[in-house]
Amino acid sequence: MKAGLTLLCGLLMATSVAAEVLIKESEAKLPPSPATAQATRAITRGPGIRVVSPEGAVVSPFPLHVVFEPRGGAKIDLSSVTMTYLRTPNVNLLDRVRGGLSEKGIDLVTAEAPPGEHQVRLTVQDSEGRQPVPCST
To answer: Exposed, middle or buried by CB within 10 Å (0-12, 13-18, 19+), for 21?
Structure first.
């Protein structure tokens, strides 16, 4: 299993501005995935994942900007990227962000999600097969 990053977005309200639908209302109504413990410390040479926005509680639509930080001259392996909404069953979000996906990260000017707290797991590995240590924001 690829290591990754869990994003937590507490959304206050939805608006009608045209945006890329990241999470559908019907998906938000699905039961949450069972909690799984993630490692919190380790030394790795795998790529970093940094969430630039959103931070904390946000209003939908919101900018989604995630930076991939390759290390040691390796490149990001775009075929390894996954983005999963942690529900039962899990929901693959990769096709919804593919338009903003590059080796630099994910950059969507506006993404939309219904009000509530949403856990999203983002995973990536580099050209040498290295993976980041999971962390939560």
So the answer is: middle
> In sequence order, what DSSP letters do the residues of 80-111 get, joined into one string?
EEEEEE-BSS-EE-HHHHGGGEETTEEEEEEE
pLDDT tens for the chain, residues 1 to 137: 344 444 544 443 333 445 789 999 999 999 999 876 555 556 667 899 999 999 888 889 999 999 999 998 999 999 999 999 999 999 999 999 999 999 999 999 999 999 998 999 999 999 999 888 654 44
- CA 88 – CA 25 distance, rounded (Å): 14
Query: Interior CA angle at 78 toward 98 and 68, to 5°?
Result: 90
Which structure tokens are listed for 1?
A: 């299993």
Using the 8-state DSSP alphabet, how is residue 27 labeled?
Answer: H
What tokens does 50 get? 């940094």
C-beta neighbour count of 59 within 10 angstroms: 12
Backbone angles phi, psi at 77, to 5 degrees: -90, 100
Q: Name the pTM for this structure.
A: 0.79
